Amino acid sequence: MKNPAADDKVELVDDVGIGYRLRKCGKTRLVIIAVVVALLIIGGIAAAVYILTIISNQIDTSKDPCDDFYAYACGGFIKTHQLNENQSSIGGFTIVNDDNMKVLQQAMVNASAKYNQSSFILKTVKIYDSCLNTSAIESRGSSPLEKLIELYGGWSVTGKGLNAWTVPEKMGRVLRDLNVQTLLRASVGTDFEDSSQHILNLNIASLGMSFKYYFDQKDRSIKVREAYKTYMKTIAKLLGGGPFSDSKMDAIYDFESGIAESVDPDTVSEDLIESLMEHHRSGRSLDDLDQTIEEFWLDSDFETSFVTDFLNSAFYNQGVTFSSYDKVYYPQSDVYKDVFKAMASQYQNKNKQTVKDYIMWRVIDSYVMSMPDNFLQAKLKYLKAVSGLLAENKRWSDCLEIMMSPMSFTLGRLYVDANFDESTKTTVKDMTTRLRQSFIDNLDDSDWMDSSTKQSAKAKAQAIKEDIGYPAFIKHDKKLDKQYSLLSAGEDYFENTVSMNKFIVQNNFAVLREPVDKDMWMESPAQVNGYYSPQQNRIVFLAGILQSPFYRKYWPKYINYGSLAMVIGHEITHGFDSQGRLYDKDGNVKNWWSYSSTYNFDEKAQCLVNQYNNYDVFGTPIDGKQTLNENIADNGGIKLAYDAYQSWVKDNKKEGQLPDLGLSVDKLFFIGFATVSVKLKQKLKGKRHKRPLTTQRKHD
User: Fold this and answer.
1) What one-character-per-residue DSSP string does 584-633 give?
2) What's the pTM value of the predicted model, to 2 decimals?
3) For the CA atoms of 38, 39, 40, 43, what is the dihedral angle to 10 degrees?
4) Averaged over 147-152, what is the pLDDT?
5) How far is Cα of residue 654 from the mean position of the Cα atoms in its chain?
6) Residues with catalytic annotation?
7) What are the transmembrane regions (predicted)?
8) Range with the lowest mean pLDDT among 47-56, 152-161, 424-433?
9) Phi, psi of 368 (to 5 degrees)
10) The pLDDT value given to residue 172
C-alpha cells in the first residue's frame, strides 16, 4: 500500500511468525499505528490460540512421551479420526493430497476460460472432461478395446484380426504406442557411469500378478489366484470370447505361471538399484556395469536377433536401430539372470500364438479401467481379493490422479497458479542452506570416517542442488505448448488414454542419444512429495508438499523446522545412505569411500538394522535391512533439522513457547516432527489398490 507521506511510514517486520514490531513511525500516524498494533496483537493471540488448538487436538497428554512418544504426540489425532471400511490410512500425506486434488478440481472448472489461449490447458481440460463423461464411455461399450485389439495384431481368444507379426515385433509395437511392457522391460535412463549421458535399460516386465501368487500355497494366495483366473475369463467373455476362450485363457495363465514358478519371489526386485548395490557389494569392476546386447543374450538366453527386433520395433519412431554391439544396462545378479532365462525358456518352448495372446492380454489388462462399468467391476473384484480393501474415490479425483503422470506440468501449472505462495521459496531455501551446513558440521564431528572420505562427502553435500516449488518453464505458455505439442486430445476417454500413454513412452524414448537434462523435474509440482535424485545429486520439493501440516507460513519456526526441515534433511541424508553413497558429487557411480570408512559405515548400518528388527507393525516384525535406507534418512533428517533450527535461533531470536501447553521450544520442535508422522492405519491383506483408470507408470 502506498503511503501519502514519504517520511511517515509504517513498516511491519515479521519477528517470530506471530508478532510484529514497528519501525520509523511518523508522529502524524500514531492513531493509525495504535489501531494496527491492536489488530496485530489480536491477530497474534488468535493465531496462537489456533496453533494451540491444533496441537492440543493432535497430542494425548494421558500418555507419557518417555514411554511411547508416538502415542503421546499422535494419540489425539488417532482418537478423533476414523477410517471407513475401504481406507487403509489417514495421515499428513493423504490429507494434503486430498486437499490438493480439491484445488485442482476447482481450477479445472474455470481453466478453459482463464487459459483460453493456451493449447496445453485446453488439452488438459478436454481429457479431464472425457474421463468424467461416463455416459459416453458406457454408450460405446466394448468397441474401443475391440478395435485396439484388431489394430495391434488380433487375439485368438476372440478370433479377430490375426496377423503375421512376430513376437518381438508385437512386443515393440504395443510398447511404443500403448506403453505396455511385456516379457522384457525397455526404458531410457541415466548412465550409471556417466550421468551426463542416457543409456538403454533392459529389465523384467511385470506379470499379471505378483510373482508369489502363482505358486504360494497359503489360503490367501490360492484365493487371489482363482480371482485372477475368473477376472481373465470374464474379460474374455465381455470381448466376445467363444466356447474355447476359457481354455485359451488357461493357456495364457500357464505361460505366466511358468515364468513365476521358476524363481524365488522373495529375491526378485524390479528396482535396478538393488542389482547395482549387489554388484557393488560383490566388488565387481564398474567396467562390467554396462554390457552389450550380445552379452545380454549370453546372460539371459534371449537371442540377439530377438532383442534387436524388439528394440527396433519399439524405437521405430525415433529412427534408431540396434545391433548386437550396442551398449545396454541390465541387472546382472544371479537372481535376475534366472528370471530372464525363465522368460526366454517360456518363449522358446510355448506355442508362439499363446505368447502373442499373452502380449495382447497384458494390453487388455492395462486398458480395462478405461472401459464401461462391467469391465471395471470385473477388475475391481479381483483387486478386492488381492488387498481386502479398495479405495473408493470420487470419479473426478480418479481422473486427476491418472492424469498426474502424463499431464504433470499442466496440472502443476494449474496448482501453482491457484495455491502456491512464492515467498515459500525463500524460506525453504534458507532452511536447505542451514541443513546442508548442519550436515557438513556433523561430518566434522564424526570419528568413524577418515579424512579423505570426509572431504569427498563434504564436496558432495556442497554440490547438492535444490529446486523448490516448480520448474520455471511451466509459467511460460509457449514453452508448455511446445512440451505438449505431440499430445493429442479428443472427446473420447479411451483414445485419450492411449494418447497419454504414447506420450509418456515417446518422451522417454526420444532422449536415448541425447545428453541428460539434469534440471528435468521427475514429478508434478501438484504432487505431495520431495525427493533426492542420486544421479542428479539434487533435492526437489514440490509445491504440493509445501502445505500444512508440512509447512505453515505463520507458525513458529520450531514447528516448521520439526516438520518441513526434517523432510528436507531426510532427503539430503538419502544422498549418503547405503544406496546414495554409491554415487559421487556428479551423480556417477564411483567408489569414493576408503575401506575403513566403508567398514565403519556397514557396522553402524547394521546397528540400525538390529534396532528396527526389534519393532513390529500389527504384530509383524519389521525387516530392518529392507527399511534401512528410510531409517537412515529419518534419523539423519531429524538430527539435521534440530541442528539447523539452533542455527536459525543463533542468527535471529529465540522464539517463545506456546501458552498453556507447558512445553519447551525444544519439545515443541519434536511435536512439529510428529505433525508430519501422524497416521491412523489398519492392517491390509496386501497392497492397497486405488480404482485405476489406466495410464501406465512413467519410465525409469
Assistant:
1) -TTS-B---S-HHHHHHHHHHHHHHHHHHHT-EETTEEP-TTTTHHHHHH
2) 0.87
3) 130
4) 95
5) 37
6) 571, 634
7) 30-52
8) 47-56
9) -55, -40
10) 98
CA dihedral 142, 146, 148, 150 (to 10 degrees): -170
Task: Kindly tell me if the per-residue pLDDT of 331 is higher than 70.
Answer: yes
Q: Spell out the alpha helix ranges (H) of 282-372.
A: 293-300, 304-314, 334-349, 352-367
Angle 118-120-122 from CA coordinates, rounded to 5°: 70
Beta-sheet pairing, 327-329 with 290-292: antiparallel
Output the pLDDT for position 358: 97
Examine the pLDDT at 326 and tell me if it is beyond 90.
Answer: yes
Residues in the chain, total: 700
- For the segment(s) 421-469+527-681, the CATH number from 3.40.50.1980, 3.10.620.30, 3.40.50.960, 3.40.390.10 is 3.40.390.10
Q: pLDDT tens digit string along 526-553? A: 999 999 999 999 999 999 999 998 999 9
pLDDT the model gives residue 393: 75
First to last CA, the chain: 50
CB of 332 closer than 8 Å to CB of 656: no
Q: What is the DSSP string of 11-55?
A: EEEESSSS-EEEES--GGGHHHHHHHHHHHHHHHHHHHHHHHHHH
Q: Could you tell me the CATH superfamily of domain 142-370?
A: Neutral endopeptidase , domain2 (1.10.1380.10)
Query: What cell does 204 get?
Result: 523384467
Name which of 211, 153, 212, 206 is nearest 181 in CA terms: 206
Burial of 287 (0-12, 13-18, 19+ CB in 10 A): exposed
Q: What is the DSSP string of 177-202?
A: HH---BSEEEEEEE-SS-TTBEEEEE
Q: What is the dihedral of CA 635, 641, 646, 650, to 10 degrees?
A: 150
Residues 6+ apart with CB under 8 A from 135: none
Cell (9 digits) for 634: 529419518
| DSSP run (H or E) holding 495 | helix 493-509
| DSSP helix/strand/coil, 65 | coil
Q: How confident is the model at residue 484 (pLDDT cuts 50, 70, 90)?
A: very high
Residue type, 90: I
Note whether 60 and 72 are within 8 A (CB): yes
| Domain chopping of the chain, boundaries | 26-98, 142-370, 421-469+527-681
648 vs 6 pLDDT, higher one:
648
Q: What is the mean pLDDT of the chain?
A: 86
